[in-house]
Amino acid sequence: MLKVVDDGVSITLVGKDKNPLFMMASGLIVLAVVVAVVAMTMPVKITIGVMAVFAVLIFGFNIYKNRLQYQSHVASGQITIKNHAFITNGQHIKLTNNAQITLTDTTLIIADLGRSWHISGFETDKERQVAKSVLEGKALQKNEQAIRIL
After folding, report:
1. What b/e readout covers 70-90, taking b as 16+ CB neighbours within 10 angstroms?
2. Using an 8 Å Cβ cutoff, are 11 and 131 in contact?
3. What is the spatial distance between Cα 11 and Cα 14, in angstroms, rounded to a whole number?
4. pTM, full prediction
5. Terminal Cα-to-Cα distance of the chain (whole angstroms)
6. Are 8 and 132 in contact (CB under 8 A)?
7. pLDDT band at 91 (very low <50, low <70, confident <90, very high)
8. What pLDDT score was predicted for residue 6?
9. CA contacts within 13 A on the Cβ side of 89
10. Is 68 helix (H, G, I), strand (E, B) or coil?
C-alpha cells in the first residue's frame, strides 16, 4: 500500500524475505556428512579427492558470503522513500547523486558507492514506478485519488 507523506512516499512491502545463505549452508552441512561417511568407508585416495572438492565448495561459499555483505534484500515491511534517500528497517540510507536506480521485472535495484539494495514485494508496478521516481528526485502532486509524477 502506498501513502504519500510530507517529503516522499511510504510503501508497505508484502513479499517474503529470503536468506540465500541458509540454503547454501544447509547444503554444505549435508555434504559434510557425506564426506564423513566417505572418509570412513572408502579408500584414502577417494577420501582425499572428496575432501578437496568439499574444501573448494567451502571456499566458494565464503566468497559468495563476502559479496552478500555489500548487498541487501528488502521484501517485507515498511519503506519510506524520499528524494535520494530511503528508510527501511530503522536504517536511514542517503544516496549520492551518482546512485544508479533501475527497475527489473519485480525489483527496484539501487546501487551506490559499491553497495546495492534489492527492493521487492511491491503490490503493483505503479508502486515501483513511483518509488523510482521519488528516489530520482521527481516531485509528486497528490490528488484525492491519484498521484501524478511531475
Report:
1. eebbbbeeebbbbebbbbbee
2. yes
3. 10
4. 0.73
5. 21
6. no
7. confident
8. 77
9. 8
10. helix
